[in-house]
Design brief:
Layout: H1 2-17, E1 26-34, E2 42-45, H2 46-56, E3 61-70, E4 73-83, E5 89-101, E6 104-111, H3 114-120
Parallel strand pairs: 1-6
Antiparallel strand pairs: 1-2, 3-4, 4-5, 5-6
Length: about 120
């Protein structure tokens, strides 16, 4: 199932960057986990979290550099890009761990440092 999970995550990022629906690839109760030191740290429903990101950075997108199979988890290393209301643009290399069950994403963990994402799945 790992190859399929990698392909689901690649498609999720492609669709999300294009602002196309991803409902068919995401569980209705998808969890979003921020690092503890984030402005809104901890676990919460993904819909609200992702909507909040787009409110701050309407053009937010992730330029995927690397996708790694970790069984039920898939690690994405990439650069997040976005322009805030102030006009300031951000470019930040980050890591994400997607957890999938039955071909659908059930959890998304965000890490400020890609090494932390790799560590979370035992790759470092």
């Amino acid at each position: 199932m790992s190859y399929e999970n990698v392909e689901v995550v690649r498609e999720l990022h492609r669709l999300w960057n294009a602002r196309e629906p991803t409902d068919h690839l995401v569980a209705a109760d998808l969890e979003y986990v921020n690092p503890p030191d984030a402005i809104e740290g901890g676990t919460r429903p993904a819909e609200a979290a992702l909507r909040g990101i787009l409110e701050v950075y309407p053009d937010f997108r992730v330029e995927v550099e690397r996708v790694l199979d970790a069984g039920d988890d898939v690690v994405v290393v990439g650069v997040a890009h976005g322009t805030g209301a102030s006009g300031i643009t951000t470019h930040s290399r980050q890591g994400y761990v997607w957890t999938l069950r039955d071909g659908r994403a059930t959890r998304l963990r965000w890490f400020r440092d890609p090494a932390e994402a790799l560590k979370a799945v035992g790759r470092i």
